[in-house]
Every structure is written in C-alpha cells, then in structure tokens.
Design goal:
Length: about 525
C-alpha cells in the first residue's frame, strides 16, 4: 500500500478522536437510558458494592454471590485491577461512575486498533471500515449496553496489546498484558497466546515464550491457588461444579476431566449437542462469531491465538450465557478478530484486492450482520431492543428517600433497581434473604411482559417475583410497610404498617398477576 492513501498523523488522530468521542456519547446515552428505564440487571449492584467496600474498608467483600454469605469479591472473579480505578470511584462514588468507565473503555479500544492499522499502512477507508467492524459488531455493541463488567477493561488492554504486537512496542505490550492478568481470572491463557504470537510474528523466541510461560503460570496460580484461598473453602460453582449447580460452571473443562477421553467427550458435547431455548451449541456460536467478519479472520488463524481464553470459556462453558449474542462475554474477542482480519487482508491482497474496496467490505459487513440480527428471536442477536425509550424512568426522589430510611442496613432488593441501594455491607437480589434482612425494597409497577427474559438473577422469573411480593405481604407479619409511594414499596422488619396501605399493595400486586400480559 502506498503512502498516498494514508492521512497525516495529526489529522488521523483528530478523526479517530472524534469517532471515539461520538461512540462514547452514543453508548453512554443508550446504556444509561436502559438502566433508568427499569431494564438494568443485578450485576451493576454487584460491582458497585465491591467498589463501595473497597472505598470503605479496602477489601472487596460482597454478599451478592452464592452461597450468599460475606465473600471476598476477588475470590469470585479475580479483578485486582479495580484498585487502580478506586481513586476515580472515591471522587465520584456512584454506580454511574462505573458505567462511564465502561463506555470510555469500549470507545477508547478503537484508538489502538486504528494505530495498529495505520502502522500496517492501510488506507483511511480501510481503517474506517475496520473500526465500524469493531465498534458495531453485534457481539461488541451488545456488550456496551450492559451494566458495568470488567470485560470492558479487557477490551482496552487487548486492543492495546494488538497494536503493541504489530508495532513491536515491548513496554506497551507487557504493560497491557499485566493489566489484562489483573482484570479477570482466565486471561492467563490470552496472555500465553499473545506471547506465542509475539515469538512467531517477530521471531523473538526468548521474549515471546517467556511471556507465554508467564501467562500459563498466572492462569494456574490464580485459578488453583489464589481464588480458592480467597474463597476460604466456600463453594464456587463456576470453579468447581460439583460444589454447586453444574449449569453455572464456566471452568468445568479445566477441573473435571480425568482422561483424554473425558476431555474429548466434554468438547464434543458442548460443540455439537447443546441447543436449548436458553443456549446454542459451541459450533453454532463459532459460526456466528466468524460470520460477523465474513470469515476473513480464519485466513490468518495464527493471529487468533490470543482468543483462546475467551473462546474456550464460551464454547466449553456449562453456562450457556457466554454463547449468546445478546450477552457481553465475547466482546474482548472482536479486537483479536480485527487483528487477524487485518493480516488476512494484507496476506491475500493480490488475490482479493480487498484493500482497494473498503466500501464493498462495509456494505457486506452491514448486510451480513443485519441478517444475523434478524435471525430467530430466541437467540436475541441484538440487545438494543431492550432499551425502554418510551417507558417510565426511575424516580430518584423516592430512591433518595428510601436510601435515607434504610441507611446501611441489610436489604433484599429488586434486581433492576438494586444498583441504587448497593452501597452497604449486605445486599441481596430479591427474593433472596427476603425473610431475614432488615428491609425489602421493590418497585411494584411493571407487568412481567416488560422485563427482559431473565430480569431477576438466579433464575427467578418476573411472575415468580410478583408472587414472592404477594406471599411476603400475606405471610410475613413481622414485616411492616415503611414506605409506599409511586409504586415504591419498602418493608421493614418489626415495623408497623403505614395504615391502611397493605390492602392497597396487595390489590396492586393481584392486579398485575391477573393482567400480567397487558400494559397497565
């Protein structure tokens, strides 16, 4: 590729910066509207509790994960990277701070990818096309609309590692991989893949294989030593499925096979046999994943080595969620696919001449991914439909009053409003612990048709949620109604009802249960 198609560096950075800013504002607006329109999940309260406990005590203690006792959050998911984000949270202690950080990381991931492509001397049209393929890939874009998760940080570190690999910047390469190891427990395998790729790509075997060995060692150390120690022997179903519900295990493939035959049987089962209303087979997932980039990355398979960790977790997980398009787990794979895509295009330029047809590539990408997102609705290939543009938004006046009433006491709170009340030592997803906590907080408004498919964590459907509210009001006289206004309901242990509202609330819940498939 000649220099004629490459824009000056200063202009290039301005153009990419404007694109990053625009994307950041777009996904921040969409994700915020989703959360404020009662479409959030319990995950935001999980992370907000971790950060609040870090700010308050310096230790990431949580109560939000099985077996629902006080746990070290890094024993559940190993993310000491949060200590680096803590100063920002300490200045702006709010769950929305985490949402801003997430959207910023997703948007900024485009910058190192753009620098990588410029270093490879792609034209401005090809760079723009590749950035669209990254930022608007369904698996990436869907992740931006979720509540905060640590994978947003992983996307930024992985994108930076891709650029550093191509540009041969050892300092940036090592720094991004160390940050990646501190982001989540399974990324030692990704680091090992990057190390092996460096060794092969640059013929720098000593450095590359050292990084590879370090990644493998870190993976074993984190999963086999550090997390079990932090977990203090308590059951962790994602690590050891025999200690809990096997359907939640994402690392069954690392722990439970005792022979080569068992390994193969497990791979075969999850690749070809798991097709249920809640999940898809690994083969179907891989087909759709590579289809989003028209299978071009498969022409440079060597550059897919760093994808091993997330591919293994998604394909071999007993939990079907990582294989679903509406989920967030696959977002870190997309920068790696762009890395492979770029090398595939460069390697095949004489046969395909793709470098001279960015608009054609753009059109193909749009058509293919539009078709993919219009597939059977049960696979939920586009997450944006869950944003409640025309639905009522959370009233912060009532939320602030409730925060003042409940203080830092233990609460069992409805998942989609739980992030507002998670800054306390004990918080649970309603109806979990609803018979023992000091306060129960719910918002009695939406009929269950309006909720996402699984709005209440731990497999509690929305209809069961309203039944639980009704039973609590009927069968738990030790809970009195402390607050009832604009459909916000707060029950307090050993408190007196604010007469005569108990019957009003029961009638409201009964009406929702009877007409749950109709809008109020």
């Amino acid at each position: 590729m000649g220099e004629a198609g490459i824009v000056p560096k200063k202009r290039f950075l301005w153009c990419v910066g404007i694109a990053v800013l625009g994307y950041f504002l777009l996904i921040l607006a969409l994700s915020t509207v989703k959360i404020l329109s009662f479409k959030g999940t319990f995950d935001l309260s999980v992370f907000n509790q971790i950060f609040w406990m870090l700010k308050t005590t310096g230790i990431p203690m949580i109560t939000t994960q099985p077996p629902f006792v006080v746990l070290n959050g890094f024993g559940w998911h190993f993310s000491p990277i949060f200590y680096l984000l803590l100063p920002v949270y300490a200045v702006f202690p709010s769950p929305f701070t985490l949402q801003v950080i997430q959207c910023l990381c997703f948007a900024l991931s485009a910058l190192p990818i753009a620098l990588m492509l410029r270093h490879m001397q792609f034209s401005s049209g090809m760079i723009a096309t590749a950035l669209v393929m990254l930022l608007f890939n369904p698996l990436y874009f869907n992740a931006t609309l979720w509540d905060f998760h640590e994978i947003s940080l992983a996307c930024l570190w992985i994108s930076t590692a891709c650029w550093a690999l191509v540009a041969k910047r050892k300092y940036w390469f090592l720094s991004s991989l160390i940050l990646l190891l501190l982001t989540k427990e399974h990324y030692g395998l990704c680091v090992a893949g990057f190390g092996m790729l460096w060794a092969i790509h640059h013929r720098d075997w000593k450095f590359g294989l050292s990084v590879c060995a370090f990644g493998v060692l870190a993976l074993i150390l984190v999963l086999k030593v550090i997390m079990p120690w932090l977990n203090e022997g308590l059951p962790h179903p994602m690590l050891r499925p025999e200690m809990g519900d096997k359907t939640t295990s994402r690392y069954y493939w690392l722990f439970s096979a005792t022979s080569i035959k068992e390994v193969w049987d497990g791979i075969n089962l999850r690749l070809f046999s798991i097709i249920t209303p809640e999940g898809v087979s690994g083969a179907y997932y891989l087909f759709c994943l590579f289809l989003t980039l028209c299978f071009i990355p498969l022409l440079a398979p060597l550059y897919l080595l760093p994808a091993a960790s997330d591919l293994a977790m998604a394909v071999l997980s007993l939990n079907p969620l990582p294989r679903l398009f509406f989920a967030y787990h696959s977002a870190p794979l997309i920068p790696i696919l762009i890395l492979a895509y770029a090398h595939a295009v460069r390697r095949n330029r004489f046969e395909w001449k793709l470098e001279h047809k960015p608009f054609a590539l753009f059109v193909v990408f749009v058509v293919v991914n539009t078709a993919l997102c219009l597939q059977d609705a049960k696979f939920r290939a586009l997450h944006i439909y869950e944003i409640g543009f025309n639905q009522p938004k959370i009233d912060f006046t009532d939320a602030n009053i409730i925060r003042d009433i409940t203080g830092e006491h233990s609460v069992s709170v409805q998942s989609n409003i739980s992030f507002l009340f998670s800054e306390r030592p004990e918080v649970y997803a309603f109806p979990m612990k609803s018979q023992t906590v000091d306060f129960v907080i719910v918002h009695v408004y939406h009929p269950f048709e309006w909720f996402p498919k699984s709005p209440f964590i731990y497999s509690v459907s929305s209809k069961e949620h309203y039944i639980a509210i009704y039973d609590l009001l009927n069968d738990s006289p030790h809970y009195g109604i402390r607050y009832w206004h604009n459909n916000w309901l707060v029950l307090e242990k050993n408190a007196s009802d604010i007469a005569p509202v108990r019957e009003d609330v029961l009638e409201r819940v009964e009406a929702i249960l009877k007409t749950g498939l109709k809008k109020p």
